[in-house]
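Lab notebook page, bench 4
Experiment: in silico fold of construct C2
Operator: M.H.
Input chain length: 510 residues
Purpose: comparison with the prior construct
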Amino acid sequence: MPTSPRIRALAACAVALATLTTTAVAASAAAPEQLARFHDQHIDWHACTLGPGDQLGQELDAAGADCADVTVPLDYADPGGPTITVALSRLEAADPAHRVGPLLFNDGGPAGPSLHMPLTKSEVMGDVADRYDLIGMDPRFVGRSTPLDCRWDLGSALLRSAGADRAAYREEVALARELADQCERAHGDVLPHVTTRNTARDMDVIRAALGEDSLSYLGYSYGSYLGEVYTQLFPGRTDRMVLDGVNPPEQYSHTLLRGAESANEEALRAWASWAADRHGAYGLGATRAEVLATVEHILDAAAEEPLRIGQAHLLDEHVLPAVFIGGLGSDLDERRADLAGTVRLLARAADREPVEPSEALAGQLEFLLTGAGSAPSSQMTAIICGDVAERRGVGRYWRAVEESRERFPLAGPLANNITPCEFWDRPAEAPTVLDNDVPALLVAATGDPRTLYAGAEAVREQWPSSRLLTVEGTLQHGLYGEYGNACVDERVNAYLRTGRLPARDVTCEA
């Protein structure tokens, strides 16, 4: 994918997954009359710029967008209790004669800010954008919404590798416990309400406050899960729905990449072949085997002693795999070149040469290794742990790591490592069970290393009224407006324009 904030965050740390659902818990569902003051609230649209350094606000204002804060209950089981705010952006429909209604966006994550999306998606939508009020939403506790930050000194709580041996893994257990305890001390009263189900409820408050009977929706990766939860909690309130990067319910887990180890190792091999063809430019090896040997050398060196990158950063065996995995979400040349440049630098660091990071790598390392990444990492962790935390026992994670290591040396120890969710309080609600049928357009690539294609097929079977738009032969996470595939962009735009799904599933070539 090109350069959306969701993808930059993915490359930095967070891999997003996508679908799932839950059985409604009666105690958590307020009666409609109890929510009337939220549904009937006046939305005060205003300029988006918050200050002289607010680039996003300036870009939104320049495009003619408005911004607002919507008030929602902290706890939907107690709508008379404390409230929080959810930040919105809006580009109003420029063609009111053909207006469809609001189109709400989610950029994935979890914890992906989405205020920017009316700007980025209006470009690929073309004149179709004129038919919608384009609505960006920072989910609860994310971005400009009421904030949450556990004040960690790192930004990689959920995407850390177990390390080479049991001693290294014990360090991960201690860290996961401390991160969970620290977040509990900082936000214990709030954490039970930092969930996808409550974000879906916020969406319905927004729908009502906008004066609409239904929402159209475009969600990427984790955003597809959020969309599915919304359809389960509020059946019949979606109009046109596009889910790009889709997983079945069972894939939504606090071990984010579990089940995708093979796809990520295949993406690594494919990238290694690409880099070998460009050995003259990058010097990583003239064959795929030689490039993979370079990667192995870097990983082994970091296990022996952290790699020094510039004067500020030490990159160890727990964080280094996330740098590789973060670069494997796309087979676009630009993204592959970014990873090759990083690996070239890491190879020198593995040889204990002094190296200075590129601007992009410096930002990535600051996000992964320092408190600069604390807020987004805290928010992502709180959402996932609030949705699906479970106590497996620390030994079970280690056994899974060891079982996967031989087949998947890069992805296995990362995908099966312990996370703070092991030490989190159990979720306030049971995981959502998806048992409806929604007419949606599902968009997926056969080689997606994040949300596996088999998962998209499973959701298609779950929703027989939906249609599956497939891109064959590509290792790509995120397609519409992000891959430059005219077939995908035209098919999605046709659906958004007319509201008519294709008569049958559709395949596009890479």
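Observations: The first strand starts at residue 66 and ends at 73. The mean pLDDT is 93.
Next step: discuss at group meeting.
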